[in-house]
């Protein structure tokens, strides 16, 4: 809408072309959608109204669901996960994305790749997924997650399988967490911090959430126990957190990326020098050249190889990222509802939902 940069916030000016359109938006409370009368299949749509409650309290979400006030939720209190999964009430499905830690690569002490590698090797990812997140997540052994297509894979394997692992995880024949930690201590000593001596107190930044807090506390304990360093924790509300991380005003920060489309480029071109999502402030001319090569070639095998080489650079040479696990999606849906469907890119579709028979 010309001359109005707030048009997306007002029901009178918001434009859409999907099956549902905005009917009401009570900010910080709820969004109400109704069928779009111009949609080609409007006659076959399901709900006459879909209301999205805007909530950030997991306890309140679960209470509302159990009381029948909510028909669908995506988050529950961390302490309730084991029992809800065991009962089958909480659904766990595939989700193409990576939960990771990024380092501020332009800011000491994490401007040293040896320090970044040490912090990465000292993480026990299996402990985190088995004892902290507890929602079926898969320990990450690279940045591009499992399930992403590799067009050059002659065996039909995905990009992660073809690319291999950058460090071992539990289940690998040669996995040895104690050896990883010993290597991490050697690297920290090479960087000038034997047994963590002289290492400055650094801060781990995360957005407010019980789940993120639990991961942060696990990381804090691992780094202190295995490296002898002190890491403080700082949580910020989502909008503030995003800006702080984008501005590079941090040392270590939680991060996550979900595929917009099923291709490795979705995960790799964000680390181009000066990229809008490059919160690590990462810069490497060789990396940039490989991404540009992948974007310009018409040869699928050459394209995939360039992306594998780029991931090798950022993960195995520069250690700019610390992947923790590959996501799964969790949700609860009322047995009163039929017809919702989901894709591993994280999209839930309610357009053709109907009351259960």
Please tag this protein with its features.
357 residues, alpha+beta, seven-stranded mixed beta sheet, three-stranded antiparallel beta sheet, 14 strands
Biggest sheet details: 7 strands, mixed
The best one-word shape is globular
Number of strands: 14
Low-confidence stretches: none
Quaternary structure of the protein:
single chain
Tally of alpha and pi helices: 11
Strand fraction: 15-25%
Mean model confidence by pLDDT:
94
Helix content: 25-40%
* Alpha carbon gap, first and last residue: 43 Å
Radius of gyration (Å): 22 Å
Order of helices and strands: EEEHEHEHHEHHEHEHEHHHEEEEE
Can you put this structure into words, describing what you see?
It is a single chain. The chain is an alpha+beta fold. The protein is built from eleven helices and 14 strands. It has helices at residues 58-66, 81-87, 113-121, 125-133, 159-163, 177-190, 210-227, 238-247, 265-268, 285-296, 300-317; strands at residues 20-26, 30-35, 50-53, 72-73, 91-103, 138-139, 202-207, 231-236, 252-258, 321-333, 337-338, 341-343, 347-349, 354-355. The strands form four sheets. Strands 4, 5, 6, 7, 8, 9 and 10 form a seven-stranded mixed beta sheet that branches. A three-stranded antiparallel beta sheet has the order 1-2-3, with no helix packed on it. It has a two-stranded antiparallel ribbon with strand order 11-14. Helix 3 (113-121) runs antiparallel to helix 6 and helix 10 (285-296) runs antiparallel to helix 11. The chain is globular.
């Amino acid at each position: 809408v010309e001359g109005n940069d707030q048009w997306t916030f007002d029901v009178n000016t918001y434009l859409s072309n999907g099956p549902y359109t905005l009917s009401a938006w009570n900010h910080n409370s709820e969004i109400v959608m109704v069928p779009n009368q111009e949609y080609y299949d409007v006659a076959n749509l399901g709900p006459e109204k879909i209301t999205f409650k805007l909530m950030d309290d997991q306890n309140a979400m679960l209470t509302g669901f159990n009381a029948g006030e909510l028909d669908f939720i995506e988050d529950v209190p961390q302490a309730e996960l084991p029992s809800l999964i065991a009962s089958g009430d909480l659904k766990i499905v595939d989700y193409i994305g990576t939960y990771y830690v990024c380092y501020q690569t332009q800011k000491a002490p994490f401007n040293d790749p040896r320090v970044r590698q040490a912090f990465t090797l000292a993480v026990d990812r299996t402990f985190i997924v088995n004892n902290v997140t507890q929602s079926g997540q898969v320990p990450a052994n690279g940045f591009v997650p499992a399930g992403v297509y590799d067009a050059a894979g002659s065996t039909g394997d995905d990009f992660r399988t073809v690319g291999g692992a950058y460090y071992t995880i539990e289940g690998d024949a040669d996995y040895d967490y104690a050896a990883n930690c010993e290597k991490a201590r050697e690297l920290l000593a090479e960087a000038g911090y034997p047994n963590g001596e002289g290492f400055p107190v650094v801060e781990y930044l995360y957005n407010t959430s019980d789940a993120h807090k639990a991961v942060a506390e696990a990381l804090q304990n691992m780094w202190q126990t295995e490296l002898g360093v002190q890491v403080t924790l700082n949580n910020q509300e989502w909008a503030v957190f995003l800006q702080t991380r984008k501005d590079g005003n941090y040392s270590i920060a939680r991060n996550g990326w979900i595929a917009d489309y099923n291709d490795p480029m979705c995960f790799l071109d964000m680390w181009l020098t000066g990229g809008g999502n490059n919160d690590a402030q990462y810069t490497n001319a060789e990396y940039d050249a490989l991404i540009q090569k992948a974007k310009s070639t018409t040869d699928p095998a050459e394209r995939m190889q360039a992306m594998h080489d780029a991931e090798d650079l950022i993960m195995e040479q520069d250690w700019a990222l610390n992947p923790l696990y590959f996501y799964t999606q969790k949700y609860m849906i009322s047995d009163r509802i039929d017809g919702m469907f989901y894709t591993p890119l994280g999209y839930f579709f309610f357009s053709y939902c109907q009351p259960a028979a």
